[in-house]
Amino acid sequence: MMGVGPSGGSESRRAVSPVIGVVLLVAVTTILGSLVGAYSFGLIDGIVGEAAPQATFSVEQEAGQMNVTHTSGEPIPAGEFYVVGGGLAEQRWAAAGGETTDGTVQAGDSLELSPTSSDDPVRLVWRAERGDRSAVLRTIPVESTGPAAFAGSVRTGTGFGDQQFADQSYTWTGRARYGEIGNWELKVGDSLSGGAQAGRTWTSGATESFELTYDGSGTATLTVGGTTISDSVSVPQGDAVAITVRAPSRGSATAKNVRIGGAVPATDSVTAADGDKQYIVVESVGTSDGFTITGEMVFTWTGTTGKEDPGMYIDVD
């Protein structure tokens, strides 16, 4: 029998060591690969949060209302689903009045919103409860609906609008007119003989903005273009406002895009031509409580013209 010397055992161990090293390397590589895969797919709790849910939504908008409905895809935990933007406060889906099924938002669940800003799109946002992962599921532009309609009734006709009031006279007035040297062009006050007044130069065919405001406490302010005047006035006794435009013999006067507190009356423009006078009377304005009337005015004339031709009178009852 041959014995195995010390040198033979040492060589055997050296032959086995590389094999063990390769096996360990393969094992470590396999484990690392599994960890990377789990990390990538969000399977390791505490390392990476959940993956963003995949879902689709339908949107309908009409008259300032927005209906959002989950139509297909994964259900989303209601506590992780947020509605952001549209001029509204940020809220979770359920807190905003959205439907849920067993605590989740899933196909068929819907939410009714009333966005207040068309400059701020509505965003449907998912935020994981654990970790800091989030994703915008959909961005929805808000359709502009324009100003609301004014509820008060409107009458139109030929002549002076204040003659349509119950007592056929105004409580106070705001006026803009073509004037002569030494005469006023803008006035606001209880009467034509008093009140605040200012001069102004007009350009035929130019569009000028106007605003008449009553603060509900005795002060009226008229602004035309960049000129503003204010005066103390009596509290209106009626509840109507008349806008009268007066045209020169060879020209016109127009008030257009009229708004009462930002709302659109049934008739929002009036034009007179060739020496005529036309009016709009808007009722149920709430004059004693305070109000604001805005719009645009255009005067045109040919050659020379006299005092008050053209002109625009806003009389308050």
Automatic annotation (TrEMBL):
It holds the Pfam family Pilin_N. Residues 14-84 form the Archaeal Type IV pilin N-terminal domain. InterPro entries: Choice_anch_W, Flagellin/pilin_N_arc, Pilin_N_archaeal. The chain crosses the membrane at residues 20-44. The keyword Transmembrane applies. Residues 97-118 are annotated as: Disordered. Keywords: Membrane, Transmembrane, Transmembrane helix. This is Type IV pilin N-terminal domain-containing protein.
